Amino acid sequence: MLFLGFGKSKSYQLDAWEVPPTGRCSIEVRGESQYQDALVKVLGKKPKKNVRVAKQAALIPEPKNEHDSNAVMVYVEGRLVGYLASEEAKRYAGCFQYCHENKRALACQATIYGGGKEKPSLGVWIDLPTPAKLMKHLV
Fold first, then answer.
1. pTM here?
2. Which overall architecture, per CATH, does domain 16-138 show?
């Protein structure tokens, strides 16, 4: 069960399938530049030097997204921190359709990185198995 918070007054819990880690956070989340404040809140403060922090991410399909019906939101500690890249969302479309039909999210390992002089913005990478292995885990 994942807890998602939205502002001060709205929050809810969402059932999620836990994805076994592969040991590699190899899928980059997109749009993090729009969610720097959320990432700083997840970390507790703006880092002064580069960080690599392991967290759990919730991946939630957003089929009614007006720009991309395959859109997948990425939440960390109840905060939207970006979206799965469009090409990755398409690769995993069958998995996320199955999640949406079952009213569940996916919970996977994530790494927040950056924040120092070399990379001042924060980024997020997630750990997912191949779509075929993930689907076998789900069904």
1. 0.89
2. 2-Layer Sandwich (3.30)
